[in-house]
Each structure stands twice: as C-alpha cells, then as structure tokens.
C-alpha cells in the first residue's frame, strides 16, 4: 500500500496540463491537497487548482442519477425549488430582462422551468438520461439529450447562456467557454455558478471542504475564473458570493448528523444522492406557514451571506466582448 501511494505521488503529473492558461511544464505544478482517492494540484503559472488528469475517472454522467433519486425528486416540493431559482432569474434580469436563454447542463430542469415561467424563451441540454426524462416529461421543457461538446448549435443566437454547477465537472472548460461565446448574440451574457476555492469556507476546511470530490475536477478562484473568461472573449460584469442553503443541509448538516448518530467522527461515511434528497424533502413537508417563514428567512440569509462575501460558491456574470 505504501509503495502504491508513493507511485501515485510520483505519477500524478503524468499528462498534466492546465485548462486555464495552457501550462504543460511538469515542473510548474505544485501539490495542494492530498485525499484518500485523489490529489489537488495548483498551476504555478496562473494559480488554477484542479485534480490532475492522472486521477480523473470516467464518471458516467449519462447515468448520473438513479431511479431512487428520481423518486425522491418527484416527492419534493417544486415551489421551494422555484423560489430558489427565482433569485437567480432576478439577478439575470438586472442585465437582460427577457429573450432567448440556453441552459448548459439542465439537471432536473427546475431552473429552466423558472426561467420559462418568468418570461424567457428557454431551452437547454442535459447529458443524463434520467434527468433529461424528468425535465422533458415532468416539466415539459425543451431540452436536448446529448453531450454539449457534440451539439452543433447556431452562433449569435442566444441572449443568455447559463451554467449552474457544471463547469467544475467537465474536463475541457476552456472549450466549453469558447463554444458558449460563439452561441451568444452581440453583448450577450454568460451566467454561471461554481464552487469557490478561495472562499472563506474552503480556506478554513482545506482538503476537508465539502465541495471537494472526485466529481469536481476544477476548482476556480475569483482570479482563475476571471482569467478563463477574459481570455476567451468575455468581460466580467459581476462576481458575487453564493450560499446555497439546500447544499448546506445536504452536504454539511446531514453528514454531521450521520456521524453523530454512528459516533464515527473521523471516519469517512457514505451518503447516497437519494438520502440527501430525502433529507431535504423532510423540510419541504412542514406546514405551509412554516415553509413560507422558512423561505422568507432563506432569502434574507442568502442576501446577507452574499453581501458579506461568505459562501462556498460564486455566481459570475460575464458579457460577450464586442469586437
């Protein structure tokens, strides 16, 4: 085991390259964090943090969620999800009141549904078969089931392109950003959310940060997301901290409760996506007046946490540069 560990330490730079600045010099990468199943590396040229290509597993996003998760999602309260995404649409409308909006990585589709209800001509793409099925069958959305990289999409066609918690998953973020730039109309907006590795929470938790996993291969800071976007045809309009209460409940509170119950404080615990969704659903089945008060409190906390720049993620609004 010790021998294999040191082999990994020696080989983690195999085929290593930076997807932000293009650095391929193996001597210009530094080890940042070591976990049980992967390591996180810093590019010494631009500061980008990522899981080296050596460690990346082929995650089957086509079957990213199972039937148990689908059952849990269907049992959830869609109004609560609508309220959560309404905050995102409210931000977008500060820059683009209406128009054509394309969502890359639709997921279950609740954001796209909210965008459609609030006046946008909404469409998108989702690679997961199960999520695509829910988005098109349950929510009746205009969503293509495909890999975004494989799609032939018209250029200069959309007013807004969004990407919520997707860029951290994909192996070629620069390629995706370039494609999105071509999709947008003149002065169009690209709005995305990613985990923020230079956030106060991430700096405090370090390698134990709840957002750190083998599925999240890219870890952007304000500096590196700005570099990626500006080098590929965008101008940063706004970066704001985002504190997702749902994610806090599922990825921080639930693990804490499970460790407390099992008395395994220092051991790794396994929690399925269905468990996380069911735990969140418990809060959505409270009496209506309690839910209403909870939503009001959520909006206040969300805005306050964003105002003081305390959140694990960041929302970035970028505008296509005019030539």
Describe the structure.
The protein has helices at 2-11, 67-74, 78-92, 110-117, 129-138, 173-183, 200-205, 222-230, 245-262, 273-284, 288-307, and strands at 29-34, 39-43, 49-50, 99-104, 120-126, 143-145, 158-164, 184-195, 218-219, 234-242, 313-320. By secondary structure, it is α/β, with parallel strands linked by helices. The strands form 2 sheets. Strands 6-5-4-7-8-11-10 form a 7-stranded mixed β-sheet, sandwiched between helices. Strands 1-2-3-9 form a 4-stranded antiparallel β-sheet, with no helix packed on it. A hairpin with a 4-residue loop joins strand 1 (29-34) and strand 2. The longest helix has 20 residues, at 288-307. The model is unreliable at 1-7 (pLDDT under 50).
Question: Average pLDDT, to the nearest integer?
Answer: 85
- Distance from N terminus to C terminus (CA atoms, Å) equals 56 Å
Kindly provide the radius of gyration, computed on alpha-carbon positions and rounded to a whole number of angstroms.
Answer: 20 Å
Overall strand count: 11
What spatial order of strands do you see in the largest sheet? 6-5-4-7-8-11-10
Beta-strand percentage? 15-25%
Number of helices: 11
Helix content: 25-40%
Major beta-sheet overview: 7 strands, mixed
The helix/strand series, from N terminus to C terminus, equals HEEEHHEHEHEEHEHEHEHHHE
- Principal-axis shape: globular
**Broad structural category:** alpha/beta
Task: Enumerate the spans where pLDDT stays under 50 for 5 or more consecutive residues.
Answer: 1-7
